[in-house]
Amino acid sequence: MSTKIIPLGDNVLVKLSKPESKTASGIYIPDTASSEKPAEGEVIAIGDDKKVAVKKGQVVMFKKYGGEEIKINNEDHIIIKNADIIAIVE
What we know:
- By secondary structure, the protein is mostly beta strands.
- The chain has one domain (about 10-90): Roll (10 Kd Chaperonin, Protein Cpn10, Chain O).
- The protein is built from one helix and six strands; from the N terminus they run E-H-E-E-E-E-E.
- It has one helix at about 30-35; strands at about 10-15, 40-45, 60, 70, 75-80, 85-90.
- The protein has a six-stranded antiparallel β-sheet, with no helix packed on it.
- Strand 4 and strand 5 (about 75-80) form a beta hairpin.
- It is globular and about 45 Å long.
């Protein structure tokens, strides 16, 4: 069964990116080290507030400690406020 989540207001649904577990030279990175990177993911859906500055499909960086983490179809997602988005990754 496919679940559809539609954020309200200035909320944004983001599919979390999986951190790289290995460097280009082949060195494995432990999970504890990967938490040092800023949180990022792909925008899946946005709320109906006109002030939301991102679009579906963009990759964004956001504050680590905020939002509501959820699983959709066994994939990690987070619902965050527009104000918690700190950058668009191009």
